[in-house]
Amino acid sequence: MYDVKKIQEGAVLGAIYGLLLMLTLFVPGSELVTIFLMPIPFVIYTTHHGYKSTLVLGVIVTLLSFLIAFVISVPLTILAVLGGTMIGQAIHKKRHAYETWAMGTVGVTIGLVTLFVLIQLITQINLVDHYQELVEESMVTSQTMLTSIGMDISPEEINLIEEEMKNIINLLPSILVIFAIAITFVTQWTSYKLLNWKESKNLKFPPFRMLQLPKTIIWIYLITIMFTWFQLDPTSNLAFSVMNVTNLIGILMGLQGISFVLFYFYHKRSSVAVPIIIIIFSIVFLPVGLYMLRIIGIIDIGFGLRERLGNKK
User: Fold this and answer.
1) What does each C-alpha distance from 50 to 3, 28, 82, 92 come to in angstroms?
2) pLDDT tens digit sequence for 84-141
3) CA distance 280 to 293
4) What kind of fold does domain 1-128+171-206 have according to CATH?
5) Which parts of the chain span the membrane according to its record (predicted)?
6) b/e string for 234-257 if b means 16 or more Cβ within 10 A?
7) pLDDT tens-place string over residues 157-199
8) Is the N or the C terminus of the chain less surrounded, counting Cβ atoms within 10 Å?
């Protein structure tokens, strides 16, 4: 026997998603906002009914999206369904907010990779090669412009800048994950607000000072750092993986460092302005500030600084 209320809710939320998709496709600039909102209908549906029902709804919505604009609508729908389902399932299972964030990030990352791959397959355009061509064209244009105003740059300097810009593409996995972290956070926060408003729930992120990464992440970081001591072939998959893992974990360690700075000054009952000034100073003076935050994060996780502070209280 069919659950009429479940079907009705699925139809309403599917229609809301369709409106958001149409807005994204046909209103320029709207995607800057809707990319965070499109997973929310699936978050809400999964929160109420679990992931199995949402996947059925997702398949139906994906098939319907073929009728709108196949090239981009299907990848966007897959992104919204995966991200929304992972966040919603974590809420459905009453997971911790940061655990929900991690699960949602996995879903959104898979969605972004799917989006990237499908766009290349459908359009038959290699985005990596296209980016490298743009870099070469921009360097030629920049060199011509600088020469016209009397500034000469040696070919060696041009080649060095060009190589650095092309190397950015090697960080594509890291970039996708960073985007996924940001998208998931905004989507999850907005979903919390909607569910709290409509259903009188008390969903919220705990204070950022309470963020605590697992100790295993230090061992992963140390192992990848050890690989950097060897002369790896820059074009190898191993070097590619090591570079992305170290960058991603480095960012996480930096976030852990920021969390500890906030925790420390909160523990000391200092003015909130003090840690904010320190964090801003660290971010402005990159990369030194970021390295300092990473070190603080590593020490915090590895040596249990918070527990030590608590024992001294």
Assistant:
1) 14, 34, 13, 7
2) 999 999 999 999 898 899 899 989 988 888 888 877 777 777 777 777 777 777 777 7
3) 11
4) Arp2/3 complex 21 kDa subunit ARPC3 (1.10.1760)
5) 12-43, 55-88, 100-122, 168-192, 213-232, 238-265, 272-293
6) eeeeebbebbbbbbbbbbbbbbbb
7) 677 776 777 677 777 788 888 899 999 999 999 999 999 999 8
8) N
